[in-house]
């Protein structure tokens, strides 16, 4: 029987185990075999073309020759083709193309930038992706902000100032908000009184008697709110304390509360618990001074710049 | 005797050895040169092993499978550099076991996420990503606010030490770390102080906004905030890095 199978030619390897157990031998299709040899050739060619093949402590540097770039000292130098050299060259070429715009931006005073149509359109087009990559995660797209955490950049209420210079300072150095908790220093009724006063300041509905009591506390040395928020409760931009007299809410989620009790509770929570947040990262180092100036103008133009 | 295919197939021992030889060719060709070539790992200042808290954060990063959607490797391309920052260096993951480079990005690369956002943002984002990034498809990780189990942190550092990460187990090793990283960092690498250092960093950093307990959130945010921040690239000449390749 084995002999019969053998007569079928190339279909078996000719090995026979246990009298009848045979191994089929179906050759690979020739297109596949040649394709495989092709990949071997491709690999060898690839090794030679790109920097790869190791020789002792060094390696072959490929056939693309050298890439020229400018070093930190401003001299042109070159190195064998590699992705880092290529990136450095491309980055420098792109920077050279953008240089006229950035130079002009750096040289133009803030109040003149809007009057130059070329420069304005550069700020808008280059600012959009910069803002989306770096700012929108917190300040949301369009700078609409998020009550409770991140101030809106599109309104005209600014914790640290909305002038170009102040915005630039904020972006460069970052900010760190802080308000001490008053939950232990004051009685719950006092916190409620203060919260009522703060709500009344913004024209929200509040118990007039409690608000009057809160007003007294606000200006007393016991609670000492006026130290930071000022005599008129309008906030101080040099220390980033909030203006309590406008209708813009950042830390207390008054707009999101459903009823009067909720609004009161939202303000009480901030007074009692304080704020150890409001951290804006510093962007110097991560962004260049030119990019920061560009973002400053972009943010200023979002709607609320002063 | 002629060496035939039949000999290979009918002798399990020879087949085993031949298979191992064939497989190791690939490994040798890819790995051996990296140990021989002088310029594989760049010489840059600042890279240090993770503190105990950061290290536990890294464990949580791996436990939660963050690497399945986030890479930690910025490739040397212009678009990546513009979005994520300076391309990653081999030196920056020399204390990572295993490294978290990855090639699949559903979310953004995290190699330089450190310092980009506030701690508060990270906490909000990890608990519910959509609360700060409405279009995000990242799942919620609310359980990260639960207490961190750090009872075994010393053992974990010891395990990393066996892979070559210089956590110090003796005065001599501590002295070597002082020389290499300075006193401040060397203190954080002491295995005998691992638990105390972990708690101290969590309380001082207050990563999760709650000083009363050490949570998994503290550890993970501490880890995220250090990613990509160890090397000061303003002090590195770009052409020096070019010459390592």
Describe this structure in words.
The complex is a heterodimer of chains A (306) and B (245). Chain A has 306 residues and is mainly alpha-helical. Helices cover 46% and strands 9% of the residues of chain A. In chain A, a hairpin with a 5-residue loop joins strand 5 (66-70) and strand 6 (76-80). In chain A, helix 3 (83-107) crosses helix 12, helix 5 (117-134) packs across helix 12 (289-300) and helix 8 (188-201) packs across helix 11. Chain A is elongated and about 105 Å long. The N and C termini of chain A lie far apart (99 Å). The mean pLDDT of chain A is 90. Among the domains of chain B are: 2-36; 52-66 and 114-230, Cytochrome Bc1 Complex, Chain D, domain 2, CATH 1.10.760.10. Chain B is 47% helix and 0% strand. In chain B, helix 3 packs across helix 10 (216-226) and helix 5 (119-127) packs across helix 10 (216-226). The longest helix of chain B is centred in the N-terminal third of the chain and has 25 residues, at 12-36. The model of chain B has no long low-confidence stretch (mean pLDDT 93). At the A-B interface, strand 4, helix 3, helix 5 and strand 8 of A face helix 2, helix 4, helix 5 and helix 11 of B.
Task: Produce the secondary structure layout.
The complex is a heterodimer of chains A (306) and B (245).
Chain A: H1 2-6, E1 12-17, E2 21-24, H2 30-49, E3 54-55, E4 58-59, E5 66-70, E6 76-80, H3 83-107, H4 110-113, H5 117-134, H6 136-139, H7 164-173, E7 175-176, H8 188-201, H9 208-218, H10 225-229, H11 260-273, E8 279-280, H12 289-300
Antiparallel strand pairs in A: 1-2, 3-4, 5-6, 7-8
Helix pairs in contact in A: 3-12, 5-12, 7-12, 8-9, 8-11
Chain B: H1 5-10, H2 12-36, H3 52-63, H4 78-84, H5 119-127, H6 153-162, H7 171-181, H8 183-188, H9 194-205, H10 216-226, H11 238-242
Short account of what is shown:
The complex is a heterodimer of chains A (306) and B (245). With 306 residues, chain A is mostly helical.
